[in-house]
From TrEMBL, chains A, B:
Taxonomic lineage: Bacteria, Bacillati, Bacillota, Bacilli, Bacillales
GO terms for cellular component: cytosol
UniProt pathway annotation: Cofactor biosynthesis; molybdopterin biosynthesis
DNA damage listed as a keyword: no
Name of the protein in its database record: Molybdopterin molybdenumtransferase
Annotated source species: Staphylococcus muscae
Family membership: Belongs to the MoeA family.
Listed GO biological process terms: Mo-molybdopterin cofactor biosynthetic process
SMART domains: MoCF_biosynth
Length: 419, 419
């Protein structure tokens, strides 16, 4: 049994190899009310000017600015209110000298008016109000098109549709939105030691936790998941399952089976599928055996069976690939610098990824390993909102060191408020 | 028409008033495969030890450590392999002196063995292998219970269930999970100037964008939304709609109608409902008229009709309240410090919330207003992943200043990778 020789590549190089692939999903049209979180498949242009008409930014009175010239504390000028318009209504009247129209925030400036007086700047009279200052031409008027002009690209192809983008689409009347389809994924947990969650424990076996964990990570990104039954460590049946999953889905994610041990069949399966193995060894701990391959224009993610490594592999390779496939222009994880609040003395030649809890209150950004005391690998993922990245070297890290942390949103909610 | 007098309170005080309310959802049981993003309603305990048995952390050979004593480069000691076990299987054999069992990562240590030799540390022979170093008692063995012992609380009531928590629940056989129910929400966009997204434009009117925006923000948190038809600015019919929404939902979110203008009926509606108004003026821009009230044990969020203010109000008050209602122990937004990359010279006595784009690549954290050039309020929300918080004062802010930014996840994906 010869041991396969593998050559580790840097994490950054591994990520780039994954994202160099030209594997994309098709585009489709989606209801405005369901498109949040999708990636735009076309530029979106403004279908009209914003503001669409000269409008009032305040509750107050529309006036002719020239009528206000010379007003002062000692010489208040009186106006007669001839109409009263709410937002959404338009006055049919045209202002004559000395006249004003009561106007609400957002309402269209009536003909003849060229300035707005705020309610607070007036004193009521029987048929109108007086004011004590003069107004300039166009003072307190939001001009047509000053924010956005017809034809301006307001949202870009490749942009993630957030709630703000939904508001823009609504504003311009896009009730259907061109988006890239979300990929679908097959999850295959390998290993004859694995039981289903519902199963009673048996000697020598453990329940499959990587499968549900990866399913949850995928579902959070809106990726539809098919979970395949756990495979016994048997080459022929494993190959058949991977083949059938690959036919149905855009990506096949396996957990476990990527080492070079006797029962690890994935390298053979990749050969049988004539897959191009992008890498099968990464200079990182844990998860150095993480493998990514491409076959028939689809991704095969061979994540480690170790829960922490499985999680890191997903965050580093699978999640960016999902957004890359959907044509997103932004798909890299957010990385912050934080002050280490615990000693972490283990040195390692490879870059270490350590599950971590980041505190982001504005006052300070601090981080500590979430599995620092006795809690185990799986438990510590549950208590983390990021991964510390500790570059390889001969020394460990100490309290007070500044380290980099990759955020694994959205677990960024904080226990304290700092305002 | 007397103008109602309102007294602004600080943003922090406003948030605290919202979160002081004892308004909680009930608990329910949820399938493991659907519980991601929910809040745990009970502590979860380990149902067995992890590791559950003494196991091998490596692929290699289980030996009796005493048999390896005295081994060296010059004096290699030979072992005979008597069995071969994969993960999930247990050897029926007990080791005698000089014997070894081939063992896979994760497999149970066979009887008699007390150390594991890594594959790389051996040289194969006809019936086994030789090694050149001695091993200590329990060397390379993961001991039963060393990570987590039976009965340990592994997940806490009030914790958000992330993918790691799903893995923990799977590990300990929790196929059903106790969670707090997500609240449901009614959204009522007020204002007779509003058209539906599908409607053609009419003079003086704009399409309702706040409603779809707030719906998208709620849906991202998994909150079920009922959108009510846009109301004309009429007190009686508005009151009837708010009443009916309040009966059916845990929270009623209105947009617009909170000013003190003639057509703003919400203050009257709160009075008619005998609601306790927690505040109706906050020392912030935009959105100073944001109102939060409580009636019949339910929240009424009166968000501003200005899109930016509507968005800020949701992030500052509604989102934390949703997690507070679900019994979460963490519900405050994440706040980071970033270097301002653009001048922002407008001074304001109130705290300003400015839609912003934060770059988080690890190398540096920078922020710029996302509506810096000509793009309008709604468009700039679409291009933001955070809100700068600029404390009120008499001066503006300049390039190079360090400012605080409230993250509005999950739009934290980056265009560049820094590793």
């Amino acid at each position: 049994m010869p041991v396969e020789k593998r050559h580790p590549i840097p994490v950054k190089e591994a990520i780039h190899r994954v994202l160099q692939q030209e594997i994309y999903t098709s585009s489709e049209r989606m209801s405005l009310y369901e498109c949040e979180g999708y990636i735009l498949a076309e530029d979106i242009v403004a279908t009209y000017d914003i503001p669409r008409f000269d409008k009032s930014p305040y509750d107050g009175f529309a006036i002719r600015s020239e009528d206000s010239q010379g007003a002062s504390q000692e010489h208040r000028i009186a106006f007669q209110v001839i109409d009263h318009i709410g937002a959404g209504t338009v006055s049919a009247k045209t202002l004559e000298p000395g006249q004003a129209v009561r106007i609400m925030t957002g309402a269209q400036i009536p003909a003849g008016a060229d300035a707005v007086v705020m309610l607070e700047q007036t004193v009521e009279t029987e048929d109108g109000f007086t004011l004590r200052k003069s107004f300039k031409h166009l003072e307190n008027i939001s001009l047509q098109g000053e924010e956005t002009a017809t034809g301006d690209v307001v949202l870009h192809k490749g942009q993630r549709i957030n709630a703000g983008a939904v508001a823009v689409l609504a504003t311009f009347g896009y009730s259907e939105v061109p988006v890239f389809r979300k990929p679908t994924a097959a999850i295959i947990a390998t290993g004859s030691e694995l039981l289903e969650v519902e199963d009673d424990l048996e000697p020598g076996k453990i329940r499959n936790s990587n499968g549900p964990m990866i399913a949850a990570l995928l579902q959070r990104e809106g990726v539809q998941v098919e979970r395949y039954r756990i495979q016994v460590d048997d080459y022929e049946s494993s190959l058949a399952v991977v083949k059938s999953a690959l036919e149905k889905h855009d990506m096949v994610i396996t957990t476990g089976g990527v080492s070079v041990g006797d029962f690890d069949y994935l390298p053979d399966i990749y050969r049988a599928l004539e897959a191009e193995v992008l890498f099968n060894k990464v200079a990182m701990r844990p998860g150095s055996v993480t493998t990514v391959a491409v076959a028939h224009g689809k991704y095969l993610f061979g994540l480690s069976g170790n829960p922490s490594a499985c999680y890191s592999g997903f965050e580093l390779f699978t999640k960016p690939a999902i957004y890359h496939m959907m044509g997103a222009t932004r798909y890299y994880p957010a990385i912050v610098r934080a002050t280490l609040m615990a000693d972490f003395k283990k040195a390692n030649p490879f870059t270490r990824f350590v599950r971590a809890d980041v505190t982001m209150t504005g006052r300070e950004m601090t981080v500590k390993p979430s599995g620092f005391n006795k809690s185990g690998a799986v438990v510590s993922i549950a208590h983390s909102n990021g991964m510390m990245m500790l570059p390889g070297g001969t020394r460990g890290y100490q309290i007070g060191h500044e380290v980099e942390v990759l955020l694994t949103s959205p677990e960024t909610y904080q226990q304290e408020l700092y305002l």
